[in-house]
Amino acid sequence: MTRLPEDLEARLRAAASGEIGFTSSSNAKGVSTAWCELADKADLVPVARLLKEMGARLSTISAFQPQPVESDDDDDEDDDDDGEEEDPPPPTSLGGVVIDGKSYEIAYHFDLDGNTLTLLLFLPVDAGVVDSLTPLFRTADWTEREMMEVYNIRVTGHPNPRRLFIDESVEPAVLERLIPFSTLVNAASTRELWEKILATKGNAA
Amino acid sequence: MSTFTIPVGPLHVALEEPMYFKVDVTGETVRSIDMTAGHVHRGIEYLATKRTFFQNITLIERICSLCSNSHPEAYCMALEQIADLTVPERAEYLRVCASEIKRIASHLFNVALMAHLVGFDTLFMHVMQTREIAQDIKETLFGNRMDLGANCIGGVRFDFDAEKLSFLSGQLDRLEPEVDEIAGHYRSNHSLLERTRGIGVLTREQAVACGVVGPVARASGIAYDVRVKAPYAAYDRLDVPLHTRSDGDVWSRAMIRIAEVKAAIDLLRQCVSRLPVGPTAPAERPEVPAGQAIAKCEAPRGELIYYMRTDGSNRPERIKWRVPSFMNWDALRFMLKDAKVADIALIVNSVDPCVSCTER
To answer: Measured between alpha carbons, how far is B296 from B228 in angstroms, rounded to an integer?
Structure first.
């Protein structure tokens, strides 16, 4: 039982020039969730245009850097593992992007009358460029700006690609690097704390 | 007449939360606005990936105060999907109770502020006094006036015995006539209507384009409520009315909220009378396998959506949520166009904005 249009998969396939991977399921209350991976990122705009015609609403966009799934081999202690066995190649997406913990996955969540369809696409780390959906869906505006400031992803065709939340003075791609707490707070609280400790120690000595 | 730019905010635009507006005006008429956000950006999505699933419930409840129950609710729903957990029926009804009590308090707070912003402070205090009944319910039943700590993965952390249920029913009987009286003022008070009708209009087409949700969408004629369109918890077994209006102005948004307060009182009564017996949470902490899920719930301000990706460890690999306010800010560009400068705060308040939610 699904509350998504019966021909959704066929229409998505027709709109995309590359391959797609489609799955859908419904929960006990009849609410459907579908996932559609696009092999070719150039299919994003044509598929989004189809969804717009179907009356879909772009709820939000989630970007992240998926980690490769660890193999379960380590559990077999009886194996005569001499350590020379080569690691299996890292997994790749449908479109051939290597999932090495650095490449990006972007999930576009669309609402179809209460049900959710998520378009997934992968970008290699050295070519993190994707077309903007803002000209089609106003609702993509802020969320694409947020994606650009927390990752090294470039969105082409965005009408207003300036920072959303994070100040211009902060280096880009904050989610891709470790920022020590002392740097984050400009060492202000740390120094204060340290001086407090020194003062206490000085009194005790 | 020449156009000039005035700064509004970041402090005290309507709520005591920071959002900075640059408003281009001609005389006292707004021509266009620009918004600068980020004053309370705390990086909670990053922090959430550094905590375990169970620790996160505490963190996520603190993203926002007025919709604090909706965040852990949607978070738990996402994890329950991945772990393939079935929430006990009693817990589903109890989740509705927690949500609807929070909705009453949140909506009354917003309509009270509207009265304050039009200078009708007597009504402001009257509504806040009424809201105090909802606060008392929360304090008595959950031990806290804001963060209820109601949800856990697979169920709820609280239960109502006969004494608590009769307390709840008694308080609802006290609350309802007060809300009826308040609704009468908002429906008929001349000075209130003068300041709020036909102000800050968002047409249905603009509302669709902006993707607005919650009372803002419903006041512009969009019949969308997650409780009806994508039922969760016990909403599929309850009678949930869907209120819409067509004018899309400040007053319509307030009237939708008041109607939803009445509906919430009714939903709570339905829960009290039908509350099934049984467990409220799983006996053991669940294992969460690798997977991904989307969960939605209707927070007081509208659709709240959570996207969760897990990798088999005890922490989320990625977690992303989009709060209703995130959508509703954009609509202010339409609502504020050609508005009077004196109405800016009133119109901003009418989308019931939450900056802490928006910026995370």
So the answer is: 12
- Which of A20-24, B124-128, B290-294: highest mean pLDDT? B124-128
Contact between chains at A142 and B326 (C-beta distance less than 8 A) = yes
The pLDDT score that the predictor gives to residue B311 is 86
- CB of A136 closer than 8 Å to CB of A52: yes
Question: Helix or strand or coil: residue B307?
Answer: strand
Residue that the structure tokens 């999907």 belong to? B81
Q: Name chain A contacts of B232, Cβ cutoff 8 Å.
A: 29, 31
- Predicted model pTM: 0.84
Distance in angstroms between the alpha carbons of the first and the last residue of chain A: 75
Residue written as tokens 């044509």?
A46
Looking at residue B139, its pLDDT comes to 93
- What are the tokens at B79? 């994890």
Cα A191–chain centre separation: 36
Q: Domain spanning B3-359: which CATH class is it, in words?
A: mainly alpha
ipTM over 0.95: no
Contact B307 A107 (CB under 8 A): yes
Alpha helix segments (H runs only) across B121-161: 121-142
Q: Are B230 and A26 in contact (CB under 8 A)?
A: no
